[in-house]
Amino acid sequence: MTYLHLSFYSAFTLSGLGMAFHRTHLVSALLCLESMMLSMYVALTMWPIQMQAPIFTLLPILMLTFSACEASTGLALLVASTRTHGSDHLHNFNLLQC
C-alpha cells in the first residue's frame, strides 16, 4: 500500500468516524459527507493515472456531478429544517411526527 492509498483510506475513514461520533449538528454531518465524497473523487481521479487506462476517466466527472447534487440537496434540507425547527441540532428532529 502506497502513501497515496493510505491517505485516501485514512481520509475516508476519518470522515466516516466523524459522521458516526460527531452527530450534533446537521452542518457537521453534511461536512463529513462532503469530505467522504471528496476523498472518493480524488481516489477515482488518481486511479486511471496509476493504471494508465483512459477508459475510467469519465468516472470522476460522474462522481463530481453526484456530489454537487448531494450538496445542494443537503443544503436545501438544512435550510428547510432550520426554518421549521429553529436550529440544526439533530436531536431536535423527530421523524415520527408529521
Automatic annotation (TrEMBL):
It is a multi-pass membrane protein. One of its GO terms (biological process) is ATP synthesis coupled electron transport. It comes from the Eukaryota. Its EC number is 7.1.1.2. It is found in: Mitochondrion inner membrane; Mitochondrion membrane. Its main location: mitochondrion. Keywords: Electron transport, Membrane, Mitochondrion, Mitochondrion inner membrane, NAD, Respiratory chain, Translocase, Transmembrane, Transmembrane helix, Transport, Ubiquinone. InterPro entries: NADH_UbQ_OxRdtase_chain4L/K (IPR001133), NUOK/Mnh_C1-like (IPR039428). It catalyses: a ubiquinone + NADH + 5 H(+)(in) = a ubiquinol + NAD(+) + 4 H(+)(out). One of its GO terms (molecular function) is oxidoreductase activity, acting on NAD(P)H. The keyword Isomerase does not apply. The chain crosses the membrane at residues 29-49, 55-80. GO terms for cellular component: mitochondrial inner membrane; NADH dehydrogenase complex; respiratory chain complex; transmembrane transporter complex. Core subunit of the mitochondrial membrane respiratory chain NADH dehydrogenase (Complex I) which catalyzes electron transfer from NADH through the respiratory chain, using ubiquinone as an electron acceptor. Part of the enzyme membrane arm which is embedded in the lipid bilayer and involved in proton translocation. PANTHER family: NADH-UBIQUINONE OXIDOREDUCTASE CHAIN 4L, NADH-UBIQUINONE OXIDOREDUCTASE SUBUNIT ND4L. Belongs to the complex I subunit 4L family. This is NADH-ubiquinone oxidoreductase chain 4L. It comes from Henicorhina leucosticta. The lineage of its organism: Eukaryota, Metazoa, Chordata, Craniata, Vertebrata.
